[in-house]
Write a structure and sequence with these properties.
This protein is an alpha/beta fold and 66 residues long. It has 2 helices and 3 strands. A 3-stranded parallel sheet has the order 2-1-3, sandwiched between helices. InterPro entries: MTH938-like_sf, NDUFAF3/AAMDC.
Length: 66
């Protein structure tokens, strides 16, 4: 089984938005940190954390996909 990420970067399109609170609660319960930001910032942040050797994952959400 793969190790869960220590942080999940959530890209939300051109502007920052937040997923439903229950989804964020599940991440917290599993001790996975998360950051929500616009997708360009999310891609840059993901690459920086990955280059630092951090255990990071990214989710890029499509606008209107809720």
């Amino acid at each position: 089984m793969d190790k869960e990420p220590e942080i999940l970067i959530i890209g939300t399109g051109r502007t920052t938005a937040f997923p439903e609170p229950d989804a964020l609660q599940r991440l917290s319960e599993r001790h996975i940190g998360f950051e929500c930001m616009d997708s360009r910032s999310a891609a840059r942040t993901y690459n920086i954390l990955l280059a630092e050797g951090r255990n990071v994952s990214a989710a890029m959400l499509l606008p209107g996909s809720r």
